[in-house]
Write a structure and sequence with these properties.
Layout: H1 2-7, E1 29-30, E2 40-41, H2 43-57, E3 62-66, H3 75-82, E4 87-91, H4 99-105, E5 108-110, H5 121-132, E6 165-166, E7 169-170, H6 180-198, H7 200-206
Parallel strand pairs: 3-4, 3-5
Antiparallel strand pairs: 1-2, 6-7
The structure holds adenine (ADE).
């Protein structure tokens, strides 16, 4: 990501929502109406920060809110987001954000997994990493983003490098054969076996 940013292939900037607070102590949160634990981010600073970014870009931009209350992020979505010229990733903190501003600005709700984090910042970094590597020119080998886990809802096959034997364990003979078609067939079979064993839910998604 650092190299891609230095080359100008991707550009990332962080906007501090607190800078858009209109209160003297730069407060961005308040108590929830109806009571309950924790604080909520208020609509105004979130909207003003979003509006400033949108105006600077100059056209409507997909705005992704990171929240556990969403479908879990997939490789297919990473591919889809990588097609966009610009993206806004909105990170909540505290117990969440006033629903009215979410209804107004958010186009996509994304969770990175069924667990709760303290804020959307780590999920945003996860998205930036996975989306960036699908942008042409970010990975050194142009193909390395394609032939991998999840490209067909299958996990990747096992891989081996030198030496041929390590701790008495040999590299599977077929990989040394130089027989390209047989290697491909073996890898496909291994992908299916591994997916059956570790992530059978992915195979059900293919049906
Ligand atoms: N914010 C807090 N937990 C999250 C999660 N699991 N995914 C995305 N955003 C979050």
């Amino acid at each position: 990501m650092g190299r891609a940013a230095a080359q100008g292939t991707i550009h990332v900037s962080a906007i501090n929502i607190r800078d858009y607070s209109v209160e003297k102590h730069k407060k961005v949160d308040d108590y929830p109406y109806g009571g309950g634990a924790g604080m909520l981010m208020q609509a105004q600073p979130v909207y003003d920060a979003w509006k400033a970014v949108t105006d600077a870009i100059g056209h409507p931009v997909r705005t992704v809110y990171l929240t556990p209350q969403a479908q879990v992020f997939t490789q297919a979505e990473a591919r889809s987001f990588a097609q966009e010229e610009d993206l806004i990733l909105l990170c909540g903190h505290y117990e969440g954000i006033d629903e009215r501003v979410l209804e107004t600005i958010v186009t996509d709700y994304v969770s990175i997994g069924d667990y709760v984090l303290t804020g959307g910042e780590l999920p945003a970094l996860v998205l930036i990493d996975s989306i960036s590597r699908m942008v042409p020119g970010v990975l050194s080998n142009a193909d390395s983003g394609i032939d991998e886990s999840f490209s067909e809802n299958l996990l990747e096959y096992p891989q081996y490098t030198r030496p041929e034997e390590w701790m008495g364990k040999k590299v599977p003979e077929i990989l040394l054969s130089g027989h390209h078609a047989k290697v491909e067939a073996w890898r496909k079979e291994q992908s299916i076996l591994r997916t059956k064993e570790r992530r059978p839910d992915l195979l059900e998604d293919n049906e």
